[in-house]
Design a protein that fits this description.
Strand order of the largest sheet: 6-5-9-3-2-12-15-14
Bound molecules: beta-alanine, zinc ion
CATH class of the largest domain: Mainly Alpha
Shape: globular
Helix content: 25-40%
Number of domains: 4
CATH topology of the largest domain: Neutral Protease, domain 2
Number of helices: 28
Number of strands: 34
Radius of gyration: 28 Å
Structural class: alpha+beta
CATH architecture of the largest domain: Orthogonal Bundle
Largest sheet: 8 strands, mixed
Strand content: 15-25%
Length: 889
Amino acid sequence: PKPTRLEDYQPPEFLIDRAELRFDLDAVETLVSAALEIRRNPAAKRGDGSLRLDGEQLELLEIALDDRALPPVEYVVDERTLVVQRVPDRFQLRTRVRIHPAANTALEGLYISGDMLCTQCEAEGFRRMTYFLDRPDVMARFAVTLVADATRYPVLLSNGNPIDQETLPGGRHLARWEDPFPKPSYLFALVAGDLARIEDSFTTASGREVALHLYMEPRNRDKCGHAMRSLKAAMRWDEEHYGREYDLDLFMIVAVSHFNMGAMENKGLNVFNAKYVLASPETATDQDFAGIASVVAHEYFHNWTGNRITCRDWFQLSLKEGFTVFRDQEFSADQGGRDVQRIADVRALRARQFPEDAGPMAHPVRPSSYIEINNFYTTTVYEKGAELVRMQARLLGPERFRAATDLYFQRHDGQAVTTEDFVRCMEDASGLDLTQFRRWYEQAGTPVLECTADWEAGQGTYRLEVRQHTDPTPGQPEKSPRHMPLALGLIGTDGRELPVQLAGEPAPIGPGTRVLELREARQVFEFVGLSERPVPSLLRGFSAPVKLRFPYSDEELTRLMAADPDGVARWNAAQQLAERVLLAMVVTPDTPPPQAFIDAFAAALGDQEADPALLAEVLALPSESYLGDQMQAVDVDGIHRAREALMVQVATALRADLLERYHALHRFEPVTDQAAASTDREPDLSPAAMGRRALKNLCLGYLMRAPDDAVLALCQRQYATAATMTDRIAGLRGLIRLRDTDQAELAEQALTDFYQRWSQDALVLDKWFAIQAQASAPGTLGRVKQLLRHANFSIGNPNRVRSLIGAFAAGNPVCFHAADGGGYRLLAEQVARLDPLNPQLASRLLHPLTQWRRHDASRQALMRAELEGLRARDGISPDLFEVLGKCLD
Ligand code: BAL
Ligand code: ZN
């Protein structure tokens, strides 16, 4: 397969103004008729006079140009294109093709999910349904007719507004939809099925009434309330924060069970992975509820950042994804807690994006080349892209950022544009020069900020030196310094904030956060007027996506952990302190943690003033994979041992404190009566209640590291009487630790009970698979193999595949990296099995193996052998080909 390069971009030679499509729907065989109004693009270079349309896996039945059936000599069809020779400047092209939805296991284009038919077109799925100019800078008005069996598919949906319905002979029926907004083909959608609907409505700021329809399989109709509430909250938020109103009279969401991604923002007809729609307190965790709100908002926000203004080409993907992730993060921060949301986002960035940026798959936020665009729906394009927007928002400040986004919406509405167009709006509205900032879009890799400081007591001057550098990444040996905001504060001995005044500034500036701008490889900042040596609180709010190093003493970190008013910095101090203790324990296994660490932990646990949700973050140890990233060569076993040992030591030293906090928090939960299967009141789903549960279950997690009979009983009771899935799964997670111990029976009982309760609920069953795949018990690899043969495992359902194979490979370092290579073998076998069916998913699952260079020589050899084995297979997909090439060559 050949790469596509940004530098080769050419405007489309032809445009499609209108597309009339008719789908004669059937699971086995669907006929698609298209009538396309096409004209030559005056802004493009003239080619050889022929029209080249994209089309894959289509059986062409008819073709006519301006109502004249074309003879075979006038067109050429191959596996990827239809070329019509010598076309006029303006014409209508009609085609009719046959496709096979039930045989479509890749879940791109038209496919079946259970009994329904649905589509996924981004990035290049539309070409699997009809011949088209399947590129985002070709925007057409769509009119769609859907025809199907009225009993099997009573609901027929597409984008835009419903125009008409008819009953047809032979038990069939028809629906017509028309979308008044021109859109690229990747935003097309259709859904057909026997679906239930819940309805609501939303009145826009300008007083228009929008009907909101949420569709799902009928048995799930009582699990959609949270998604609907989230949608309405997102609609209001976008009006208030960006002045963006919804633009059609109808907004629809459909929940489907088989979906490669989280959800898809098709115009007026969002199609969602059921995981991001369906929730009840008994079946979904607090994290699931938050995930639903965030994804519903994300897809809704795309209506402006993605649909009204779309991408010129797929290299610009972050234009819509980075900005939309930033918007959904800010929405979630406003709904729950700002610090806790930011910590979750930073944790995710460090866990996934930083390793990507340091590995063979590293690429800029705006990549310059790809073989398979599906491989570029990455955490770099999404989450690092969001960080780039966040930094620009910070550099501009709230008022100027709002002016800049207003300008962006006004200037580019209805267009397909680039990240450069976005940055130019930031500049034009603010007067700032972002020339240097643009490097963030072009350079891959995570910058490192090396900071040092010295103190001149006599002068009251504190000098901070910041050096920045970025290691080479594939294809980019040299990096230049980047422009970024560095937010900081200064903390005194008593934990209070000190004034932050730079030398030369006329008047003292009060205490609090200051935002400095970095541009140079080395910069020195001199703070004056200080009465004592401060502890710097650096990178507050994680103001730039960098790795910051400062030689803090343990005492200084402890001070920040106890007192930093910036929640993110407070959390980060705790992480650094724990990281230090843990890495020492990796090197010297039997080192007890310093008493100062236990004391700091105890102080935070007993802090009654702080938000419990924040404390749950502060007291959570860094993950095994994060710790691995801090080492030259990852010591998988040493890290696991150290982390477990530290948790046991905390649990032992602070048993009474943990129990006390546990009970104090558990009291808030409803009391359940198992016999009557009822609770005395509804579970509380407010952010405050979720924060309490997070801290309580953190305590339980520690306690279950050193469980005596009383703790075991408490964990069993929580599992059995939980009113929420959050508490039930926390109980189960505690009990599953007993697998392969002499109390294994308790784990097996709970797992059997969980399965029996929830075997009919696919999303809960995903949790049952995942929790077993992530258990660090020695027998896990064998169990995962058994679960692959379980009656409820299906290679055809991406959620189930992720919950078993993905959870094991990406979420269970110690078992996946078993020294004999059994984990690697299992992943490679499953990727090989999946690749012919669903290459997009196969390529994503492979990622843990691509990090092979981070491991010891023996593991490297084993991992590499599996990767080579995959590459040697006949007929691997372009998706896999690209990833294997990057990580092996
Ligand atoms: N556009 C693909 C799914 C999403 O990012 O919303
Ligand atoms: Zn998106």
